[in-house]
Amino acid sequence: AQTVTQSQPEMSVQEAETVTLSCTYDTSESDYYLFWYKQPPSRQMILVIRQEAYKQQNATENRFSVNFQKAAKSFSLKISDSQLGDAAMYFCAYRGYTSGTYKYIFGTGTRLKVLA
Amino acid sequence: NAGVTQTPKFQVLKTGQSMTLQCAQDMNHEYMSWYRQDPGMGLRLIHYSVGAGITDQGEVPNGYNVSRSTTEDFPLRLLSAAPSQTSVYFCASSYTYHMTGDQPQHFGDGTRLSIL
After folding, report:
1. Looking at chain B, which residue has its C-alpha nearest residue A39?
2. B44, A107: Cβ pair inside 8 Å?
3. B116, B12 Cβ separation under 8 angstroms
4. Contact A106/A82 with Cβ under 8 angstroms?
5. What is the pLDDT of residues B51-64, one digit of tens each?
6. Is there a contact between B45 and A103 if contact means CB atoms under 8 Å apart?
7. What tens digit of pLDDT does each residue of B84-114 get?
8. Residues B5, B7, B8, CA angle at the centre, nearest 5°?
């Protein structure tokens, strides 16, 4: 069965600095997708960035980028020039396709604090 | 375009009561799912559906029922509420894998449910 592990329950970063959130996963599938979601105190789930497993190039969305290491099954999120609005829970998610359907598997989340 | 709409946003129940959490989407998504979010455990899949008339169990289905009579609606029923079902519940929807592989899930705003 697939698993997603976020080993950092909480992280802190100074405003304007860079922080990296870790995510590892386990799967036997070769084709899958990975996502990072942000959950601010409002409780909304907001997509931050996505990565297709068959694409070697790391995805980038403005200040957010990933370091995707397929062989190591690692999918870390880098936030550059951190802003106070980046403070939130961040969830790593895996989506694969097995037995005729697909399911998302989420990590347990990393709470990011941004210090002024 | 309303996206995914969940009602109610908050609910308090007594042990043994039943209730239905409503979820509706207006994006013509085939795939819909229900998650529960508990502290330190991320999002866990309760039930999901790949189209009208088709549902299946996720990771934590016990105590919950679902049905999918239309593409738009995917209600979640608590049959006999227990304190262990106190949680935040999220409904999500997306296109299926075969249509647009990298489309992420769209989430509702969540329902905070307390069982006394």
Report:
1. B109
2. no
3. yes
4. no
5. 999 999 998 999 99
6. yes
7. 999 999 999 988 755 455 567 899 999 999 9
8. 150
Residues of chain A with pLDDT under 70: 99-100
Could you tell me if A65 and A58 are in contact, meaning their C-beta atoms sit under 8 angstroms apart?
yes
Q: Give the C-alpha separation, A62 to A37, whole Å.
A: 15
For A2-26, letters b (16+ CB in 10 Å) and e give bebebebeebebeeeeebebbbbbe
Query: Across chain B, which distance is largest between two alpha carbons, in Å?
Result: 43
Rounded CA-CA distance B68/B29 in Å is: 12
Of A35, A43, A101, the CB nearest to B110: A43
Helix, strand, or coil here: B56? strand
Amino acid at A50: R
CB contact under 8 A, A50 and B90: no
Whether residue B88 lies within 8 A of chain A, CB to CB, comes out as: yes
How many alpha carbons lie under 13 Å from residue B83 in its C-beta half-sphere? 1
**CB B27 within 8 Å of CB B93:** yes
